[in-house]
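@channel anyone free to eyeball this complex?
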Amino acid sequence: MDAALNVAGLTKTYGLGEGKVDVLRGVDLAVPPGQMCAVMGPSGVGKSTLLSCVSGLVQPDAGRIDVLGEDMAALDDEGRTLLRRKRIGIIYQFFNLVGNLTAEENVLLPFLIDGVTVDPKKIEHGLERVGMTKRRKHLPSQLSGGEMQLISIARALVREPALVLADEPTGNVNVATGERIMALLCEVTRESGAALLLVTHNPEDAARADRVVFMRDGELEREAELLGEEVSSDAVHARLRELGI
Ligand SMILES: Nc1ncnc2c1ncn2[C@@H]1O[C@H](COP(=O)(O)OP(=O)(O)OP(=O)(O)O)[C@@H](O)[C@H]1O
Ligand SMILES: [Mg+2]
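replying in thread with the prediction:
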């Protein structure tokens, strides 16, 4: 079967002249359907930029990105927006919930934007799945950070995306809540068979993945990659030390 995500020779430079930052310098990464792949690397190395390129929010300078069999470069703005909204689930460090909508309305919003009617049971089930039924009428300002993240997971996953992108989903919650968020995120992506690209600074979060890749100086360190049985918290810690991350 085709990769859920296939990135080849991806480069991205921000700015010009003195202020020029070469962020991505030839990133290659193929993620098969159902694989949970964690991406680690120092701050500023370009992890979020990689995710933004994959979701079509940032245009790379060169390279190829195939998402669920679609060549991103061949799509126009609208095509990329539709692909992102319909088939990619995105979970952000700062949640990105709409402030004047309730938890439930936030989960419903992507369907409303598409103009499709959705069975209310589906929204209900999504909230129930992340244990947030009791908070459904709360505005984001009336939720804790962890709760906001659970709502954003529900929002991403009720769409049944084939590819989930998560950028430091536990970056703004306490350790115990982070563990709960990761456990749920892994469980629901496994259930749905979606591929997951997870950016994290947390070795314990990365250790839940099927594969861990390490980014340094704009590239992925091929030899450092951990796969399957090799993935463990100790192995991730050891790699981070070896690579000076
Ligand atoms: N829109 C932009 N314009 C100019 N430079 C940018 C822009 N976005 C990001 N950068 C720069 O690109 C580099 C990579 O940023 P990115 O956010 O991808 O890093 P990151 O690996 O996600 O870091 P962190 O772990 O801190 O989230 C940084 O040096 C950043 O300053
Ligand atoms: Mg980032």
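from a first look: Residues 135 and 143 are 8 Å apart (CA to CA).
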